[in-house]
Amino acid sequence: MDLLPNKQLSLDLDLAFNIPSKEVLETIADPSIKYILTKSQVWEDILKTWLLIIKNDLNIHCPSILRKASSITMGLQFTDDSTIQKMNSTWREKNQATDVLSFPIIDSNISLPEDECLELGDIVVSIFTARRQAKEMNHELVVELQWLVSHGLLHLLGWDHPNSKALEEMLTFQKQLINTTSKINNSFSTGNQLSINK
């Protein structure tokens, strides 16, 4: 299966992008990581690429409402462990930090008129957990951030992993998505961008 869209459909993405706090950014020494954590255009490009791939391939699980939408809005926030722990406690009743949270909005019962804007929901990523996981997985932080954002995006689109088979399918597809944006990866860091060992 060729994951790059055969037919480039237009897609307008309005990304509500929340950069990390000043205190969080001060813990990051790498200027390229600071850049990707503070520039929404980087994530708009990545997410638009992934959404076009998903939207244009009928073999990929995707809500039909997304395939019809020409304009999409969503939120992306990078934060710390304390903030994500509070969110996890409030919304999932799990009083612990986690790597990524997704807050989907899509309702399969809604019929969207053509050329209307579709709100997908929000993704929240803990930079500190991402940094630890990147070290454990022996890959760059930029890869882990893409790993977590892609995971959150798939949850916004209705993907889930209630069993090991579904989790493996989701992880495999995430790896394929990240590989499609490897040029973006390579512009920020070097190393193991394409050898994701999740």
Describe the secondary structure blueprint for this structure.
Blueprint: E1 12-18, H1 22-25, H2 31-38, H3 40-56, H4 64-68, E2 71-79, H5 81-92, E3 100-104, E4 117-126, H6 127-137, H7 141-156, H8 164-180, H9 182-186
Parallel strand pairs: 1-2, 2-4
Antiparallel strand pairs: 3-4
Give a description of the structure.
There is one protein chain. The chain starts with 11 loop residues before the first strand and ends in a 12-residue tail after the last helix. It is globular and about 45 Å long. It has helices spanning 22-25, 31-38, 40-56, 64-68, 81-92, 127-137, 141-156, 164-180, 182-186, and strands spanning 12-18, 71-79, 100-104, 117-126. Helix 6 (127-137) crosses helix 7. It has one domain (12-186): Collagenase (Catalytic Domain), CATH 3.40.390.30. The protein has 198 residues and is of the alpha/beta class. A four-stranded mixed beta sheet has the order 1-2-4-3, with helices on both faces. Helices cover 48% and strands 16% of the residues.
Whole-angstrom Rg: 16 Å
Average pLDDT: 86
Under CATH, the topology can be stated as Collagenase (Catalytic Domain)
Unreliable segments of 5+ consecutive residues: 1-6, 189-198
Percentage of β-strand residues: 15-25%
* Total number of distinct structural domains: 1
What is the SS-derived class?
A: alpha/beta
What percent of the residues sit in helical stretches (DSSP H or I)? 40-55%
End-to-end separation in angstroms reads 21 Å
Order of helices and strands: EHHHHEHEEHHHH
Major sheet strand order = 1-2-4-3
- Count every helix, treating DSSP H or I runs of 4 or more residues as helices: 9
Largest sheet: 4 strands, mixed
CATH architecture: 3-Layer(aba) Sandwich
